[in-house]
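Retry 2 of 3 after timeout on previous attempt. Resubmitting structure tokens to design endpoint.
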């Protein structure tokens, strides 16, 4: 009789522990928050879009804005999200550990470049191997490389009379726009396409695709 009672108690205890573990595993409040640092140099529309996308997410959060331009409008844009900003010079990024220390302070899991115009130095790339993501406004490897960003890309695409352009989301390595490609989506160009009209189309595509691809990547870490 005592053995049967003991077995019942043990069975109940095991079921209780199993249910607790199941509850914790499916409840986002018990999940470890994964943290994103956004690097930006300009107006910050992509950065703002990312912050809005992840604002209600219980497992992923944008926790830091890193910029080399204290006057960039992205700093103003992200104030409404109460995200701290961190400003540094090109020299500080390349020749000191100030950026690495700040990333460590915030326990950053993923760096996302949103119009960041400086080349990421090797010491940061090695520290965040396959954890730095960039979005480029063309179908790489076409129209990539040093100096190819923003309007420069769209002018080159239209000038080359391409029939298609698009976006490329890729990992960052030691060479401009040569990291492994994560995602691409293309769109057709019209015969009357201009750099301005193409820029507007690309911008819509970036707003639509960038956040969801980032979510997939960070959930795989």
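Retry 2 succeeded. Sequence:
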């Amino acid at each position: 009789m005592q053995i049967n009672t003991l077995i019942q108690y043990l069975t109940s205890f095991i079921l209780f522990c199993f249910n607790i573990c199941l509850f914790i595993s499916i409840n986002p409040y018990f999940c470890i928050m994964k943290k994103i640092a956004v690097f930006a140099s300009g107006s910050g529309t992509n950065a703002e879009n990312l912050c809005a996308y992840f604002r209600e997410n219980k497992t992923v959060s944008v926790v830091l804005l890193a910029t080399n331009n204290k006057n960039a409008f992205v700093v103003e844009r992200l104030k409404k999200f109460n995200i701290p900003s961190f400003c540094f010079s090109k020299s500080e990024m390349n020749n000191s550990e100030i950026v690495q220390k700040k990333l460590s302070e915030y326990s950053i899991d993923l760096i996302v470049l949103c119009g960041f115009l400086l080349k990421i130095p090797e010491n940061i790339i090695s520290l965040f191997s396959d954890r730095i993501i960039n979005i480029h406004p063309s179908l790489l490897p076409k129209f990539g490389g040093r100096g190819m960003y923003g309007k420069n890309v769209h002018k080159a695409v239209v000038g080359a009379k391409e029939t298609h352009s698009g976006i490329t989301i890729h990992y960052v390595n030691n060479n401009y726009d040569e990291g492994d490609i994560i995602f691409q989506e293309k769109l057709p160009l019209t015969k009357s396409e201009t750099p301005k009209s193409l820029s507007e189309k690309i911008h819509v595509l970036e707003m639509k695709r960038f956040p969801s691809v980032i979510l997939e990547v960070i959930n795989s870490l």
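Attempt log closed. DSSP finds eight helices and seven strands in the chain.
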